[in-house]
Amino acid sequence: MITIEYYLIISTLMFFIGIYGFITRKNMIAILISLELVLNAVEINFAVFNRYLFPGQLEGMFFTVFGIAITAAETAIALAIIINAYRNFGDIDIKNINKMKG
Questions:
Q1: Which three-class secondary structure state does DSSP give residue 27?
Q2: CATH number listed for the domain at residues 4-101
Q3: Which residues of 14-44 are buried (b: 16+ CB within 10 A; e: fewer)?
Q4: pTM for the complete prediction?
Q5: CA nearest to 1, candidates 51, 57, 61
Q6: In the chain, what are the domain boundaries?
Q7: pLDDT tens profile 1-37
């Protein structure tokens, strides 16, 4: 049986890789992928803590499914914004954010 520590190690690695990518990347798509890693790490934690703390209940699983739905909506909106920025400015790098403000 896989213990809770293995899930938490994977979740922690995903979370910190996502934070690192969010801070260091200059491309909007890469930042969005990093944000997805952070959100998936949180959803893993919801499911794991629900399973180990309250094995007969499903609140953590409902939070996870709700989180996945919110993440999908957030990704769709973010991609629409990124596509619109690319069409208007021809670039999606964060370093050119001042050009996007005007």
A1: strand
A2: 1.10.287.3510
A3: bbeebeebbeebeebebbbebbbbbbbbbbb
A4: 0.84
A5: 51
A6: 4-101
A7: 888 999 999 999 999 999 999 999 988 999 999 999 9
